[in-house]
Amino acid sequence: MINHINGKLVEKTPANVVIECAGVGYFIHISLFTYDKLGSNEQCKLLTHLSIKEDAHTLYGFINEAERTIFRQLISVSGVGANTARLILSSMDPDGIAGAIAISDVSSLKAIKGIGEKTAQRIILELKGKVSKATEGIIFSSKNNTNRDEALSALLMLGFSKGAVEKVLQKLISENPNSSVEELVKLSLKNL
Q: Which pLDDT tens digit goes with each residue over 67-85?
């Protein structure tokens, strides 16, 4: 019903934003992934998903189509509601979620607060084929994607688990966006 909101960013917290558009302030729930990408721009555009229940109409906002697609796939899983999907997106980026599902990495999903083993297995079972098809053609934007991929490959060859390595790399790249492959590997080894 509401595809996106484009307007002035009036209020921003890690859990939600208020965007004023045509004199109306829209309260929109967001993930930490979106919060990090928003920056401090006064003017912003968020893609949205409107959740309608008996007692509430709730807007969820996303920085890009990849995040919204993953969110919609997650809420299609039995037992995963909109708030749980938002929590998953706050814990892992869309690349990491799609990757964990594609390689059946239960431990990465289980590491997210509130996600047990059965829920993680259900997410993987129900979305394994769907996520890769739904996100096909969507380019996940990551400034150091090549460096990240090379560092990931190197660390996997050293015998570390993919879930743990991805988490460490995600943190390191957000803290040091211009790190070389060598720096990423060295820093990762200190944190694993």
A: 999 999 999 999 999 999 9
